Structure formats: C-alpha cells, structure tokens
Predict the structure.
Amino acid sequence: MNDKTFTTYLNLSTNIFFSCDTQGTITDAPTKTSEFFGVADINNMHLSDFFDENNSKLLCQKITEVLQNKKNKRLSLADKFSNYVLYLTPCDEKVCFCLENISEREHLSALLGKTWQRLEFAEKTAAIGYWEIDLATRETYWSTEMYRLFGQIPHQKLKKHNIITEYMQKEDWQAYKQNIKNVLRRGTPTEGQARLQDKEGRIIYCQYNAGLLRENGKHKLAGTFQDISKLIETQNALKIAKEEAERANQEKSYFLAQASHDLRQPMQALKLYLSTLAETPMHRLPQELISKAEISAENLRLMLDNFLDISQLEVGGIKYFPCLFNVHIMLHRIAAEATDLAAERQIKFSCLGQGQTVWSDPVLVERIIRNLLGNALKFTKNKIILGSRREEKHLRIMILDNGSGILPEEKELILKEFYQSNRHKKHHHQGSGLGLAIVSKLLDLIGSKLEIASIPERGSCFSFTLPLNRPQK
C-alpha cells in the first residue's frame, strides 16, 4: 500500500491516529488529527495540552506499560465534555494511538434508552403488547407487555409452538387465525377482540390489531394485543345498571298506573261515605258509614306512609341510631295493640318469647315488626304468632301466619318495590306493594336480612336477627 492510499484510508476513517513517546510527546500525527484537536499542527505537542492532568498522567503510565509488556491495550476515557475509547499498540520506542470519540454514540444510546423506557411505560400503562415476525426467517419479537399478557417470563426464548393458540379461547382462535391469513393474502390490516385464559383460569379480554411491515426489504407481520378487561367490565356494569334502571322505571310506571286507581278508590269511597253521612239526619247517624270512612282513610294513610318511607330510604333520609334495648317489652307492646284488631277479624294471635336485650335501632326495629305484622294480618287465615328465639349471639324475631304461603319463584319478587302477587288480587286495594320492600331496605340499613320460610297453602314465617351485644369494632 502506497502512502497516498494509506492517507486516503486514514481520512475516510472516523477515528484519530497519532503516536506518543514515554514522555507523552505527540508525533506522527496526520493533518486530520490536528484538525480534530483544533490546532495547526499537533506534532511535538504534549498530551497534557489536550487532556486534563489526571488523564494525561494516566495515558503516560499506560504508554510505559504497553512498551514494557509489548501488548496492545484498550482504554476508556472521559475527559472534559467528551468520552473516548483508545487503542494503544507498541511500535519501536513509541506507542501508536487510535482514538475514537464515542460521545455522540453514548448520547444517542442514552436517548434510545430513555425512549425505550418511555415506550415500555406507555405499553404497561395502556396494557398494550407489540409483536412481530420476520416472514423469511421466522424470527419473532415480543415486547415486555406481550410476555406479561401471555404469562411468559420477559425476554425468554419463545416456545416453538404457538403460545397465542395455547392461551386464546378456542372459539376466538379460529376467527383470529382467519384474520391473520387475510392479512397475509391481501396485505390489508385487521382488528378484532379475543379472550385469553391465564394459568389461574382468569379471562383476559383483548383488542388485537395486525398488519404487514416492510423493513430493509424484508416483510414482517406485526401487531398488538391490548388488555381491555377493565373496559369490558365497565361496559357490562353499565349495561346491568342500565337494565336495572329501565326495569325500575318500568316498575314505577306500572305502579303509578296502578296507584292512580288504588289512591283514587279510598278517596272516592271516603267522599261517598261523607256525602251520604251529610244527607243523613244526625239523630240517625249510621255507624256503618263512619266505619267504612275510617277504613278508607286508614288505607290512604298507609299508602302515603309507604310512599314517603320508600322515598326516604332511596335518598338516605332515614338514619341508623343503634343502642341497647329490651326487645321483649317492645314485642308485648305491639302485641297488645294487635290483639284487639286480630280479635275483630277472628284471628288467633299470640306473642311468645323471653325478655332479651339487643343492640339495634329501636325505632327502625319497631317499624320492621309492624310492617311484617301488618302483612301477616292481611294474608293469614286465622292464626298469627309473634315471637323470638335466641341463636348464639343473636336473637331471631319471627312472625308466623297460616295464610296461603309464598311460591318458591315469588320469594325474591315479593321483596321488589310495587310487586303484588296475582294470587292475592283481593288484597290489592289494601296496599301499594311496598311493605316488604321497605322491610328489606330497613333491614339492610340495620345490618340484618329478611329470611322467608313458606309452604304454599299452609303458611309463612318471616324472620330476622338482631345482635344481643354491641358488635366489636
């Protein structure tokens, strides 16, 4: 190789060449080296002219080591605002240097590292995994999030068999496979949804996309998988909430249609009785008209009370104020009031149970018992029992009747607002279908639950429990 050719190669290289003696004096440096260090001629200048004191001493030390050992040496050096890699080779009494400035490369590497971290963060936050396959070599790349979605260890070598097939639901796999075939045949992108099942059996809903890429003359099949399980759960919850709202709206619309008749009936009857009463001479005051007017007024009062109760419960207007009280005294007080009414209707009424102190809200408990007792008075044939029974740390309050009972399929329905069974049409004018719904909501408020045991045509038992002592926090 002639000198001209050698000089041409030196100028083509991005590296810088020069030689040094053991004193650190620079010699044999081409013009390109002088230009790199920003001087007219670098020959016979010293390393300390271009490197700081510590680095220049270090380089002189390495020159001595290379000459003594007669071996090449590689050295990384950070000086001022630049980073270098130096290759030192012995040559007679000097050492030849090949200096490579890697500052820009390291800067780009740092930027690339930050970009990679940001990409991984974005993938993890959005739960999006990226994959690609080189169609010629079958080399496969998966992002970290793809490994996570498919339950694999990040960046391990992927199994030869198709992991997507293993994790995807069979009915979804066929559609996914067909979509990928269409991408390969037509070159048009595709998208869809599929369900994955992890090792714990949990279903993961995914949105996938796939298409063709051309990179450096090579064709690649690439795509993404995004975990949309939370979105699907939200959509399902919204759907259920919408259905519940529509159902409640339909029930209330039905109730308003029924209530318009039920509310008018006692009012019209009351007006008729009062009109008849006004036309009757006072000395012949008929007791029957007064009794009927009282019944109509009482039915109307009960309906309005129920409307107000259910409205307050729905907006949280009724509060829970628990304390210790003797429920036995309450039961016998309620029983004393109900006995006369039961006797008028030829109903045998009894109250059983021993004195017990319970922890609850006495006002709400009394309303619950009165509602259940009123329900029993309405539907029983001729017998009602109001009683209590101790069960470990709780006291069970029970109202039993020997009425027509409740069908198994109606046990849930009777707790819904405005529901009235078609088996008891003769009782529709006596209520609004809110009594048991109010009881259920009040029990939720005090932390209890209505339990129903019933045998059709033989009777029913409605019960709930109250704690005997204040619950420990």
